[in-house]
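Appendix C reproduces, verbatim, an entry submitted by the partner laboratory led by Prof. M.T., so that reviewers can inspect both the input and the predicted structure.
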Amino acid sequence: MDSDEILEGLLWLGSQDAARRATSQGMRSVLCCLDELKEAHPGEYSVAGIRWKTMPGFKDGALGTIRPFSEEGADFVQEVVHQGHVPVLVHCSAGRSRSTAVVAEFLMKYRGMSLYEAMAHVRERRPRAYPILTFWLELVEREVELRGAASLDASPVRALHAETRGRQAAEEGSLGHGLTQLLAMGFPEAEALESLQRSGGDLQASVDRLVLEAALAQKKKKK
């Protein structure tokens, strides 16, 4: 099952494949963060004793935004936890970006964690989990709204991302191998290779992952 337990006995984070096995894995609630299922499964419904909720319009990539979906999803998770309708699985396509943003919001809003603490907690249990850069920056804004201050500075993240994207654009067409491109951007070989492996060879996903890890490492070093 492609999912990982984030809060013992309560909350799991995973992929669409994990959702297909929700019944056999003992899930009692499922939050689907897939815009792709909006026509077949709108809103909330129950199947075989499992409470399901979908969030139509929750897109990934350049057209995506976590608002208002991360808050709506976090509220749903809190509701089923409060009602004892657990464990609950939060999933998107790969269990990496949209679902991670929702879980991070839940941990900030209802478990009192900072964004730094929430992301560290999630990634310790599911290393492949990370929001794309736009979601990440929106989470920084949400933390300020929820807690009054940011635990991570978004400025270095933006600067590093802009520099990385600029280097990537300059290298396009001349370097075909993902690892070679990441090395040319200045990422360490071991981290670059691991990131490519975890992202299934997706170069942009690898870049976003490395940028986020660099920001988390910088914050940890300051502590």
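The first helix runs from residue 16 to 20. Additional entries are available on request from the coordinating office.
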